[in-house]
Structure formats: structure tokens, C-alpha cells
Automatic annotation (TrEMBL):
<dbReference type="Pfam" id="PF02378">
    <property type="entry name" value="PTS_EIIC"/>
</dbReference>
<feature type="domain" description="PTS EIIC type-2">
    <location>
        <begin position="130"/>
        <end position="466"/>
    </location>
</feature>
<dbReference type="InterPro" id="IPR004715">
    <property type="entry name" value="PTS_IIA_fruc"/>
</dbReference>
<dbReference type="Pfam" id="PF02302">
    <property type="entry name" value="PTS_IIB"/>
</dbReference>
<dbReference type="InterPro" id="IPR013011">
    <property type="entry name" value="PTS_EIIB_2"/>
</dbReference>
<dbReference type="InterPro" id="IPR003353">
    <property type="entry name" value="PTS_IIB_fruc"/>
</dbReference>
<dbReference type="InterPro" id="IPR036095">
    <property type="entry name" value="PTS_EIIB-like_sf"/>
</dbReference>
<dbReference type="GO" id="GO:0009401">
    <property type="term" value="P:phosphoenolpyruvate-dependent sugar phosphotransferase system"/>
</dbReference>
<dbReference type="InterPro" id="IPR002178">
    <property type="entry name" value="PTS_EIIA_type-2_dom"/>
</dbReference>
<keyword id="KW-1003">Cell membrane</keyword>
<feature type="domain" description="PTS EIIB type-2">
    <location>
        <begin position="6"/>
        <end position="101"/>
    </location>
</feature>
<dbReference type="InterPro" id="IPR003352">
    <property type="entry name" value="PTS_EIIC"/>
</dbReference>
<feature type="transmembrane region" description="Helical">
    <location>
        <begin position="395"/>
        <end position="415"/>
    </location>
</feature>
<dbReference type="InterPro" id="IPR006327">
    <property type="entry name" value="PTS_IIC_fruc"/>
</dbReference>
<keyword id="KW-0597">Phosphoprotein</keyword>
<dbReference type="InterPro" id="IPR050864">
    <property type="entry name" value="Bacterial_PTS_Sugar_Transport"/>
</dbReference>
<protein>
    <submittedName>
        <fullName>PTS family porter fructose-specific component IIB</fullName>
    </submittedName>
</protein>
Amino acid sequence: MAKYDLIAATGCATGIAHTYMAQEALEQEAKKRGLTIKVETHGQAGVDDPLTQEEIDNAKAVIVAADIDVDADRFAGLPVIMVPVAAGIKDPGKLIDQALAKDAPIYKPNTKAKAATGGKSSGEGLGHLVYTSLMNGVSHMLPVVVAGGVLTAISFFWGIYSADPKSGQYNAFAAMLNTIGGYTMNLMVPILCAFIAEAIAKRSGLVVGFAVGMIALNGGTGFLGGIVGGYVAGAVVILLQHLLRPLPDKEFRGLKAIFLYPVLGVFIAGMIMWVITKPMAGINTGMMSFLKGMQNSDPIILGLIVGIMCASDFGGPINKAAYLTGTALLAQGNAFFMAGVSAACIAPPIATGIAVLLNPKAYSKDDRSAGYVNFLLGSTHITEGAIPFAAKNPLLNIPSFMIGSAVASILTYMSKIQVPAPHGGFIILPLVNHPILWVVYILIGSAVSGVLLAIIAGHSAKKHGVSQNSVSLAGLTGDEAVAAIAPQAQTTTTTVGATDTDTTNLGDILSSDNIVMDVNATDRDDALHQLAALAVKNGIASDAEAVYAKYQKREAEGSTGMEQGIAIPHAQDATISRSAMLVVRLQKPVEWKTFDDQPVDTLISFLIPEHDNGDHLHYLSNTAKLLTHQSFIKQLKAAKTPMQILTLFKE
């Protein structure tokens, strides 16, 4: 049985994109650090790669990045970090650091571990429980809504009254589809209610939740009643578990599970729901009437609100609030509201594809690939593909997404477009009343966001002096990174040092004498002067001023500052006798033009003879490849002696 340094569980409300994006992010970050990890995913198809008890027992720590219940009680006794699934996508490194920290919170049965945000109060634990239980209900409800909605919509192919035996449009097959779809859609509220309760109180909560959900459905409370009923059912079962705790489990466990919890739970929670059904139904009816009125009187305001909600967190709780409202109205026969919601959800990922097409030089190779894939994701109503782009510059990019989504939604509402299915994107175009117009509106909104994103990315690239291949070394191949480090080598890197099989060893040009710690430099030019003097002192060059002049010339062509406090100054001159590498650690960081606008405290310098056989390109390429790995950078920064640094480069 394999042993893992870390184990993790990921899951989102839809179980489609976030779940697997978090898995990928955690696995890639662990790989960079040389750690082993196994990630259990909770998707719509079920649990993939389930964790065994032996794997759990042998793990050092656990990361739960999920918006749904993943049965965290099995991790009791281990350090557990619990966060929303989005945190697993955005900052996997931080989660791994916190999970492996000495003060990581130990999970106790029937409690909630502290979130990685540093929350310590019980209120934060309650908030996390409320959120994950709601998302658990939404996760199980969505497939039912989609199935019922699509089948009902297909029945309309035979006519809007095709299910009515008294109508001339009546068709027996269409009536059957409509009936099946209607029954399925009616399961929405009971399932939502039941699985909210299940996340709070396990199987006993599920039973009570279904019963309360049926009361909510028949009482006309809609999905609002399902949400309230779920929390009522869960709370009642938890209260019963507490009150019946004096009864010993050994003798009464079966009686509690089969008789006491379901009977008393349904009775108590059912009475509460019965009492609140009438006012809840009034609230639900009022809200739906208000939204229907806005569709006709204020389509611009409604589209603006829906667009902002759908593009604010890309599949998160705010996005889901708009989506749930659309599905609730759809269940009542209103297909107008869902049209605007779908348009607003489809636009952001398509916008990223447009942005990388408009300004490819401003994006890294990985970003460009992701943008192209997002054309497919967006067309199938998967908004989450926009998250990595939003995370790069959230203060500017997220508003750009909001503007485009709002435009698409407003145009959709103004044209009275109807989308009778709650998911599917362009797959359900045959069901849309004005399919071509709807696609055009979505593309207009996407183009608006795409242009804004391209402009923002271009401005950022220009500000940071980015090469045409990327905005930083992160995610680049060795050849792309060497192009950023040494522009003069771009024409030859395709044949020299272009593969990872290159055997040139950096230890050949680096010795412990060429590594100096705690150098006191006042600014960048002083640091370059001291590098040139070190080259002469170690017999690598004969004229410090000549070497310094070449350093300056190279900086004038384009800064050699990279990111994370590292610069790669290099000089080629006739006074340099042999290829060599210098590594200097500064006592205090100095200002240097870098990709991330941070000062520099580590210099990796290359000295190159005027006439060499191209070996320096191998060394540059190998260094560039090393600097694309966070694990290497962390070890370099943590090294305390020249020998540690020398060993690191040789390895």
C-alpha cells in the first residue's frame, strides 16, 4: 500500500470543473515540492480515487478543499486544513504550508477544522458548515434539475401545448416527456432540503430532510422553503442526538437510527415547517413576482444585476444564487430569467479565449492554451475556466468579466429570449426560441470582456518589461525562460540547449569560491561593480571596469531582473578568459526592474568569453529551467552556506 505525505479531498457544488481544477493545482504544487499526494475527488459521477483507511492513517496531513460534505470525520486525529474549493485552485502552496506546519489544527470527530484563513472562532466554523451544507444540497439537486428541465423543454418541440389532450398540438410521446420532466423537476426542493440536512446530520438528517422537503414543495415555498427546511431538519436531528445521548449506543444504536431519530425528527421538523410554510410561500411568491416584473419593466437593471452576480465568483455562492433563482422560475414555467443567467455564465470563459487571441504576446504559453480550451468550456456553460485569469489581476479582471456578462444578459432580456433548460450552453440551442440572436449577444458580451482583458494584460506585460512569450518565468519551458534571460540568444536556443536531456552541468562553471554570501551593496550598480571585482579576484577576467561596462550594456538592452528577488546579470567580453558563474547573496535587497516589482537579493551571474562555442547557452538554459521550479527557488533562498548552494546547482 502506497504511503502519501499528504492526502486531500476536493468537491464543488456542480462537481464538474472546480473539483478537478483544485485536484490538479494541489497535485502540481506537491510535485514541485517533491511531496507525494493523493487527491480524492467528489464529482457528479461520484467519488474518484477514494482514500482508504490505511492511506489516511499513514498520511502526515489532510487538505479538504470542498464546498460540499466529504465526510471529514474519517480524518479525526490528523492535521486538517478545511477551505472552500476555490482556495485549493488559487493558493495550493499556502494550503500545503499550513497543513504541514507544526501548529496545524488537529481534527476532532463531529467538529469542523479551522479554516486555512486562520479562523479560530466557532462562528467561522458554523459559517463554513452552513456554506458546505448548502452546496451539498445544490450539488445533488443540479443533475435532477438539468434532467427534468431538458426533458420538459424537448417536449415543446411538438408544440407549446403538446402535453394537453384537449389541444390540437397534443402528442402522446411529448406528453410522456413532459410528465417525466415535470415529476423530475418536482424533486428539486425535496432533494435540496434532504442533502442540506444530510451534510449537517448524516443519514438521519437525510430522512427528515426528504419529509420536510415534501412539505415545503406542497406548501408552495419553492427553493427558499427547501433551504430553510434543510437547516431545520438538520438542526432538529442534531438536537435529538444530543438529548438521546444518555441512551447507550451499544444497546440503543439501532433503535435510535431506525425509530427514534426518523419518527421524532419528522414530527418535530415537520411541525415547524408546517407552521412557517404559509409566510415562506408568501415570500417566495413575492420574490418571483418581483423578478417577473423586472423582466418586463427593467431588463437593463435586471441584466446588470444578473451579469454582476454570475461573473463575481465564477460558479461560487453568488453565481449559484442567480442560477438557483433561474431554476426556480424555470420550474414555474418562466424560461426568460434563465436565458440571461446562462448568457452571463457562458460569456466569461469565452472572453478569455478572445483575449489570448487578441493579445497572445501578453500571455504565457499555459495561459494561451487555457484560453483556447475555454472556448469549449464556455460553450457548454462551464464558467470556472475563467478563474485562473480572474486570479491574476482580480481588481481589474473581475470587473471586466462583469461588464461583458452584464452586456450579454441585458441584450438577452431586452429581446425576450427564452432558454427552457437550466444547463448545457450551446448544446441546447435547438430549444432556444431565438438561438442565433442569443449566441450573437453572448459573443458581443464576451468580446467586450475579451478586449478589456487583452488591454489589461498588455499593459501589465509592458509595465513589467515582459518578453513576448510570458509575463514571468512561472510556467515557462527552459527555452522560453532563456529567451527572457538572454534575448541575444533567441535565435540559437532552438538548436542549443533546447531539450531537457542536455547534460551540461552547472557545477562545471561554478565553484565555492564563486559563491559569496552577505554582500553589502547600496544599489544595483554597486552590486554589478562588486560582481565585476569578484570576477577579477577569482581570475575569471582581467579588467573589472570592462566587465562592469558589459553588465551595464546588458541592463540597458533589457533588465535581467526576474522575480522573487532574483536577477541574472551576465557579461560577454574579450577580457573574460573562461565561462564562469557567480552567485552572490546580498545583505539587503536592492531596487531592480523585475517582473513582480520586487527588489533583488540574489544574483546569478554568467561571465562569457568574447568567442566561445555556445556552451554558455546550455548553462543559461539549464538555469532558466531550474528557476521555473518553486522548490528550487525555495531551497536556493534557504541555503546558508556556499557549499549548500554549490550542491544545489550540481544536483
